[in-house]
Amino acid sequence: MMQSNLRSRRKKRLMGEINVVPYIDVMLVLLVIFMVTAPLLSTGVDVELPAADARPLDEEQIEPFVLTVDKDGNYYLNDNEAPLESTALAEIQRQATIVLQKQPKTPFMVRGDGDVPYSKIIEGMVLLQQAGVEKVGLATAPVDLN
Fold first, then answer.
1. How far apart are the C-alpha atoms of 133 and 7, rounded to whole Å?
2. Per residue in 105-127, pLDDT tens?
């Protein structure tokens, strides 16, 4: 009787391993979902940059402070998280001043739509200069040589 009791204990012994197959399945499903949705998510302001044969910024350089002017003449800072809300002119100057104080070597760029009136781009450049920025660059799209 003692013998059969030991055998039943051995047979009823719980398995001490975790079955990871369901976790791998869930992970792969999430990976596919993220791979499909990531290209669909677009952040920032839709701007048609004019094409120019200009030298690109060095990748090792500090991330630039970007003032974007859309085709309606609205201003946006650094492709902010809420691209539907334009930035007030006073806020642009305040942010530029803060960035200049913290990192004086930060490059400042104006990214203007090709269809926006030139006066709006100049107004953005003047705002940055009034905040103390000495050099302001203009962002362009690379020229397609094909």
1. 84
2. 888 888 888 888 888 888 888 88
CB–CB of 125/136 below 8 Å?
yes
pLDDT digits (tens, 9 = 90+) for 35-47: 888 776 655 556 6
Q: How confident is the model at residue 9 (pLDDT cuts 50, 70, 90)?
A: low
pTM of the complete model:
0.57
Burial class (CB in 10 A: 0-12, 13-18, 19+), 96: buried
What phi and psi values does residue 18 have, to the nearest 5 degrees?
-95, 135
Sole residue written with tokens 């094909």: 146
Instruction: Give the torsion sign (CA, 136, 65, 55, 118).
Output: negative
Measure the CA–CA gap between 55 and 113, rounded to whole angstroms: 19
Tokens of 118: 């030139």
